[in-house]
Specification:
Blueprint: E1 8-10, E2 15-18, E3 30-31, H1 37-50, E4 54-55, E5 64-74, E6 85-88, E7 101-105, H2 107-124, E8 128-137, H3 143-151, H4 172-178, E9 181-187, H5 192-212, H6 223-249, H7 257-280, E10 290-296, E11 299-305, E12 311-315, E13 322-324, H8 330-339, E14 359-362, E15 368-372, E16 384-389, E17 394-397, H9 403-412, E18 419-422, H10 427-437, H11 454-457, H12 481-485, H13 500-510, E19 515-521, E20 528-533, E21 536-538, H14 540-548, H15 559-576, H16 595-606, H17 627-633, E22 641-643, E23 646-650, E24 656-657, H18 660-671, E25 676-678, E26 697-699, E27 704-708, H19 714-730, E28 734-738, H20 745-748
Parallel strand pairs: 2-8, 17-18, 27-28
Antiparallel strand pairs: 1-2, 3-7, 4-5, 5-6, 5-8, 6-7, 8-9, 10-11, 11-12, 12-13, 14-15, 15-16, 16-17, 19-20, 20-21, 22-23, 23-24, 25-26, 26-27
Helix pairs in contact: 2-5, 13-14, 14-16, 15-16
Length: 759
């Protein structure tokens, strides 16, 4: 095993060095406070004078860096987090641990290093360190470089009032003299399991070496002893300073920025406790929860959906947790999982754990992020209130008043924190929370990027055209992953011969094979495309949007809702002679000779949301609409009556229909000029027809037609079998149609369509 794979003592710096690989390992910065600026500045200037510049690490964004070695010292005296680890100047520079203190590792890095470094330090009695580097940037990346060029040396006057700070320990003049802009110091840390393995191997070797000695000498005076001595000296100085300030001004000392930030977060969090009391006593609004299993590219997920197809939660296999967008639905979600066959454990008394917050748990990585819900804000933009490490059982909260409700939230997720500690958010989390404070008031209804030419847009009323050239507000939104997969950004030239997805989409829409020899501009966006019908060229992106739509239900109605209502009414009028079903949208049903009409019905499909695409805020103003509810909202089901087995409605020609499925078939026959008589009686038979069986329709030539909508029900399937046998016995021609056949109606009824209307 090489020195790069083991912990080795480096006598020139006096540290047990943890090895690191710049190409693979974690390289965070660390938090610098006012009291650590002098040591950081001295260390950086010392390294700059040595000018050991090398290319930056492979994972860095910068062009160059200076490799360094730094100490890592456990700081159990830290009242902010007893797991804290100080980043220090190596012992070879002299001074106590406190004199060499440059900052603290962020909380996210403690998960990697804290316990391992403490074990290594306490058992060996030796200071521990790791590799790192100082980021260097081109001077041109700093705006002050151009100020100097414009104003000459006079720009250096800005350094006259400069003082070292945590943001800039090195002045601009010093950076210019060096030739690089100086960035933060970074440490190089392998992932947690690697650090643990390295420490275990080193300690095992250390114990074997100790066992070989007949007489063990005294334990070396290591970092812990130096730390105790330095802390005692600092305490004495602070007491003397505090007493003198108390005597002079009546106050013990100045409040630090860190203390002010902690007090601010506590003050912001306290009002939430009253808000959550109201939240827990109000209804949640979700309905008909069910569990489903979905697999994409061999990745299987168990989702909790409500009646409109909105994702309410997810069960993380194999052993949980069950994460939810609204904690109030946990009991119903657990019942849905059990009904789905998932053996899931729940807290013994869920009702007693009633002090939960209005927050969601995001368990997508090694740690769980706990985020506070806000109306109109997607999960990826919610502010973080703390995080939980399942391996160590540590819950870290950013405000002390949130410790109890966040603990209850984890108990409802089936885990009990072993340690609850207070910590400050990582710098990236702090920036995220600041952005979340000014997040937009509502989720965008646009889920996919589309682009439509001006000529094609004229087919849609001006009021609704804006949605045909819209972009999602947040393309990096984790909730819009599926939307990005269907984004209208295909190659400039689509090739159906090589792209089977494109070929299948085009053939499904037009019911004919793709003509691979023909190519032309897409009639909707202008990109190079192919066709399945003469003259009708549509690219892969436009085919995908016609099948999936660019709009999604957000639970808050607006101008986009009016566009959906228009599109539904126009399709009902121009293509289906009644309200369309989802299955019918998979196939274009207008004459293909009318190119402009084909363009128009495809654009109307762009404007229709599909079930399951809804992305609601944590607290929407209404539930997501089902497809039937969208049809009713558009006024297409004004005569519909909800029956036990479907929605009873009247077809365009006045024929009564027991379901929307039957109405779709009846409207198709009427729209295409196929004569059809509803509810014809089957011939009598002493065994097969003793109850007066009826078909759904009879065509002009005596053909019977059945719309089979409930074949999963045993009694219904038995009745259909009797009808089939009855038709065979009497020599009747029988045509059966299922919901899956709705986009194939022109082919099924081709023998009865008037010439030219089949398309």
């Amino acid at each position: 095993m090489s020195s790069r794979d083991t912990i080795q003592y480096a006598p020139d710096v006096g540290l047990l060095m943890i090895p690191g690989d710049p190409a693979k390992d974690y390289s965070p910065g660390f938090a610098v406070f006012d009291d650590s600026v002098p040591a950081l500045r001295a260390f950086v200037l010392d390294r700059l004078r040595r000018e050991n510049i090398r290319p930056a690490a492979p994972k860095a964004k910068d062009g160059a860096g200076i490799p360094v070695r730094v100490g890592l010292v456990p700081r159990p005296d830290n009242d902010y987090d007893t797991r804290a680890v100080s980043v220090t100047v190596p012992p070879c520079h002299g001074g106590s641990v406190l004199d060499r203190h440059m900052g603290y590792l962020y909380s996210s890095a403690l998960d990697v290093t804290s316990q391992s470094i403490r074990d290594l330090t306490e058992e060996t009695g030796m200071p521990v360190g790791c590799h790192g580097w100082i980021d260097l940037y081109d001077l041109e990346n700093d705006s002050r470089f151009y100020d100097d060029e414009e104003h000459g040396d006079g720009a250096d006057g800005a350094d006259a009032d400069w003082e070292p700070s945590s943001d800039e320990p090195v002045s601009w003049a010093e950076q210019k003299a060096f030739g690089y802009a100086v960035g933060p110091v970074r440490v190089l840390l392998p992932e947690r399991r690697t650090v643990r393995a390295l420490v275990d191997d080193h300690l095992a070797a250390h114990r074997r070496e100790a066992d070989r000695c007949a007489e063990r000498g005294p334990v070396p005076s290591g970092v812990e002893g130096d730390l105790r001595r330095a802390l005692a000296e600092r305490l004495a100085v602070q007491l003397r300073t505090g007493l003198s300030r108390r005597a002079a001004g009546g106050a013990w000392g100045r409040e630090t920025e860190r203390e002010r930030a902690r007090r601010r977060r506590d003050a912001e969090a306290r009002p939430l406790l009253d808000v959550w009391e109201v939240y827990r006593s109000s209804p949640h609004g979700f309905r008909d929860l069910r569990a489903v299993t979905r697999s994409v590219f061999h990745h299987t997920r168990i989702l909790i959906l409500d009646g409109s197809g909105v994702e309410v939660g997810q069960y993380h296999e194999p052993d949980g947790p069950l994460t939810l967008v609204d904690e109030r639905v946990r009991a119903e979600a657990l019942d849905a999982l059990r009904a789905h066959g998932v053996d899931v454990d729940a807290p013994e008394d869920l009702a007693s754990l009633d002090g939960f917050p209005d927050a969601v748990v995001v368990a997508d990585g090694d740690t769980w992020s706990i985020r506070l819900s806000k109306p109109g804000v997607p999960r990826s933009r919610l502010p973080e209130a703390g995080w939980f490490d399942p391996d160590s059982g540590t819950l870290t909260v950013y405000a002390s008043s949130l410790a109890e409700p966040l603990t209850v939230l984890l108990l409802r997720h089936g885990v009990r924190p072993l340690l609850v500690t207070w910590g400050a958010p990582h710098e990236e989390v702090e920036r995220h929370n600041l952005r979340a404070a000014v997040a937009p008031a509502e989720i965008s209804p646009v889920s996919r990027h589309s682009r439509v030419t001006a000529a094609a847009q004229r087919l849609i009323p001006e009021l609704h055209r804006r949605w045909l050239n819209a972009k999602p507000d947040d393309p990096d939104d984790g909730e819009a992953l599926a939307a990005r997969a269907g984004s209208l950004l295909p190659p400039l030239i689509d090739d159906a011969a090589e792209d089977s997805y494109y070929r299948r989409a085009l053939e499904a829409l037009f019911g004919a094979p793709v003509n691979l020899a023909e190519r032309g501009p897409c009639r909707l966006c202008g990109r190079s495309a192919q066709s399945a019908r003469p003259g009708l060229f549509y690219c892969h992106g436009c085919c995908a949007l016609a099948r999936s739509g660019v709009l999604r239900d957000t639970g808050v109605d607006g101008a986009w809702t009016e566009a959906i209502v228009y599109a539904l009414r126009r399709l009902a009028e121009a293509e289906f002679s009644g309200p369309p079903s989802l299955t019918q949208l998979d196939r274009v049903g207008v004459p293909f000779e009318d190119h402009d009409l084909v363009d128009e019905v495809l654009l109307c499909r762009f404007l229709l949301p599909r079930p399951g695409s809804a992305v609601l805020s944590a607290r929407p103003t209404r539930p997501a609409r089902t497809w039937t509810e969208w049809l009713a909202h558009a006024g297409l089901l004004t005569d519909g009556l909800r029956a036990s087995l479907g929605t009873a409605t009247t077809a365009t020609d006045g024929h009564p229909c027991r379901s929307l499925f039957e109405r779709h078939v009846d409207d198709f026959l009427h729209h295409r000029g196929v004569a059809h008589e509803p509810e014809p009686a089957y011939p009598r038979h002493p065994e097969l027809n003793t109850t007066g069986l009826r078909a759904d329709w009879r065509l002009a030539d005596g053909t019977f037609v059945e719309a089979l909508g409930l074949m999963t029900k045993e009694a219904y399937a038995a009745k259909v079998a009797r009808k089939r046998e009855l038709a065979r016995h009497h020599g009747l021609r029988l045509v059966t149609v299922t919901a899956e056949d709705l986009n194939r109606l022109p082919e099924i009824f081709a023998d009865w369509l008037p010439g030219g209307s089949a398309g």
